Amino acid sequence: MGINIRHIKAVRRTALRSAFGILLFVALGLVGSSTLTSCHKRLALTIVEVEDSVRHYPSVVLGDELTMVYVLRNTGDEMLVITDIQPACPTIESAAENVTTIPPGEEVPMKFVYHADKNIGLARHSIRLYGNIAPKGVAELVFDTHVVRPSIDLSDHEEYHQKELRSVGEHLLDGRYSEKGYYTDDHPSREEE
């Protein structure tokens, strides 16, 4: 009866691997229990109001930008934490200065820029804000506009209108209806149609 040296070496390697594996498992368990654990506090839902969350903007010329400011108001009792902002398309840019936490009773402007440089025609998009927002954890901001081709004729109504708004300084997004630069579904002229 001969002793197989290969068999003995294989048994030693397996034993060493098992011992090393157990030692590594115990070490990671000790380290993990002290540094990798955390306390997850679940945030309670809070109530959010958005001024004019559905908007209809006048036409924009292909290649122009449309700047939108939505005012978010935390009317609940808990801190609002926005965990994610998801525009429906890559042509909507979220401003870097947008905050992600709003204390109870406070309001903040959220700024977005729509780059009208991809398609011509009706552009209807949404921006979803995720966080501890009652009841389902999401608030949706919707807007639409018509993207038109630039015209050679300078008397084009839409281009003239846009130039007038820029030159007079009347293009304010927050204020009376005539100064907002958009209209909503509950506008009186829409109800008469």
Biggest sheet statistics? 6 strands, mixed
- Count of helical stretches: 4
Helix content: 25-40%
The proportion of residues in beta strands is 25-35%
The CATH superfamily of the largest domain turns out to be Immunoglobulins
CATH class membership of the largest domain:
Mainly Beta
Overall morphology:
elongated
Number of domains: 2
Q: Averaging pLDDT over every residue, what do you get?
A: 77
Under the CATH scheme, the architecture of the largest domain is Sandwich
CATH topology description of the largest domain: Immunoglobulin-like
Secondary structure: number of strands: 10
Derived from helix and strand composition plus strand pairing, the structural class reads alpha+beta
- C-alpha termini separation: 104 Å
The SSE order reads HEEEEEEEEEEHHH
Outline the low-pLDDT stretches: 30-38, 168-178, 189-193
Radius of gyration: 29 Å
Organism: Leyella stercorea DSM 18206
Pfam family, one: DUF1573
Protein name: DUF1573 domain-containing protein
InterPro entries: DUF1573, Ig-like_fold
Summarize the helices and strands and which ones pair or pack.
Blueprint: H1 5-36, E1 48-50, E2 54-56, E3 60-61, E4 65-74, E5 80-87, E6 92-94, E7 101-102, E8 107-115, E9 121-131, E10 138-148, H2 157-168, H3 177-180, H4 188-192
Parallel strand pairs: 2-10, 3-10
Antiparallel strand pairs: 1-4, 4-8, 5-7, 5-9, 6-8, 9-10
